[in-house]
Design a protein that fits this description.
This protein is of the alpha/beta class. It has 2 domains: about 190 residues, NAD(P)-binding Rossmann-like Domain (Rossmann fold), CATH 3.40.50; about 100 residues, UDP-galactose 4-epimerase, domain 1, CATH 3.90.25.10. About 40% of the residues lie in helices and about 15% in strands. The chain is built from 11 helices and 13 strands. The strands form 4 sheets. It has a 7-stranded parallel β-sheet with strand order 3-2-1-4-5-6-11, sandwiched between helices. Helix 1 links the parallel strand 1 and strand 2. The radius of gyration is 19 Å and the shape is globular.
């Protein structure tokens, strides 16, 4: 796989997703360069065999120098926390939109052979039909989704106007080992951390009606590699499990894996978070993608990693923030 590329650059290569991607690229014997500013990298060490360039994607000159000589670029860096985007939308847009433009501009000037831009399912906004395919309307309802969609539009403009070979990945709800608990908002990580600390699981919205498509980070990385290797330039691909999991089912699986029935604290009045979310993954399956990590196995792995008293999740969800703001306004 990726035989046509030798030097591969990963922005955000010390982050949660980036670390898994870098390790997989190293296993493929690639010359891997990591571009990272250490902001949310949990003080991870640089994997043996990789080279680190400390740079901030918001600064074009730093990016231009970092990407020089790269043949394949995985642009993973950016703000991945929707709540932060609501609290500080300027930072979110500077990082995700302007930062992506800087990477694209640098890649074009460096004559990169291919760029994979990591967008998000948040670019779609609230689902209008199920499962969501790549033709679903893009109407993001939070700054994070808007900034990610802006990055997509910039990517496509560089492809159409300048011929830069860009492909786009839209991950759904990513989980797995190595998440930063202070910025991770995917329900699996949050629920497990509360449960393992003998605390009630806090469920925002209706636990029966609220559903998500959880994809393990290793499956996500395989999706990235297939898109980079096989996809036609200018195309976007959902990367999910293709399975719809309700919060009720998620809590049940957590109880089965841990052998202890979770206590639950529901916040049903925040109705904005009660929506279904599941990916149609037919398009990426055509590239040979098959998600392999089951929900139970992924949770079992996390339980082993986290131990008995892991650090509790930090921050509120987007909709909890909204409720607090509404309460303060009255």
């Amino acid at each position: 796989m990726l035989k046509q590329y030798k030097k591969v650059l990963v922005t955000g290569g010390l982050g949660f997703i980036g670390t898994h991607l870098v390790n997989e690229l190293l296993s493929l014997k690639k010359d891997v360069v990591i571009v990272d500013n250490h902001n949310t990298a949990l003080h991870r060490s640089v994997p043996q065999g990789a080279t680190l360039i400390e740079a901030d994607i918001r600064h074009p000159q730093q990016v231009a120098e970092a990407v020089e000589g790269a043949e394949l670029i995985f642009h993973v860096a950016g703000n991945s926390n929707g709540s932060i985007s609501v609290a500080n939308p300027r930072f979110d847009f500077e990082t995700n939109a302007i930062g992506t433009f800087n990477v694209l501009e640098g890649a074009f000037k460096a004559n990169a052979k291919r760029v994979l831009y990591v967008s998000s399912a948040s670019a779609y906004g609230k689902p209008q039909y199920y499962p969501m395919d790549e033709q679903h309307p893009t109407k993001p309802f939070v700054p994070y989704g808007a900034s990610k969609l802006t990055g997509e539009l910039a990517s496509l403009s560089f492809f159409h106007a300048k011929g830069l070979p860009v492909v786009i990945a839209r991950p759904f709800c990513v989980y797995g080992p190595g998440e930063n608990p202070q910025i991770a908002l995917v329900e699996i990580s949050r629920y497990l951390r509360w449960h393992l600390n003998q605390q009630p699981i806090q469920i925002v919205g209706d636990m029966k009606q609220k559903t998500r498509d959880f994809v393990h980070v290793r499956d996500l990385v395989q999706g990235f590699l297939l898109i980079a290797d096989k996809a036609a330039a200018g195309e976007a691909f959902n990367v999910g499990s293709g399975e719809e999991t309700s919060m009720e089912k998620l809590v049940d699986v957590i109880g089965q894996v841990t052998g202890r029935t979770p206590r639950i604290y529901q916040i049903p009045q925040i109705k904005q978070d009660t929506y279904r979310l599941v990916a149609n993954i037919a398009k990426i399956r055509s590239l040979g993608y098959t998600p392999r990590v089951s929900l139970a196995d992924g949770i079992r792995e996390l339980v082993h990693e986290l131990g008995e008293h892991p650090e509790l999740p930090g921050g509120d969800t987007i909709f909890e923030q909204g409720q607090q703001a509404e309460a303060l306004s009255h």
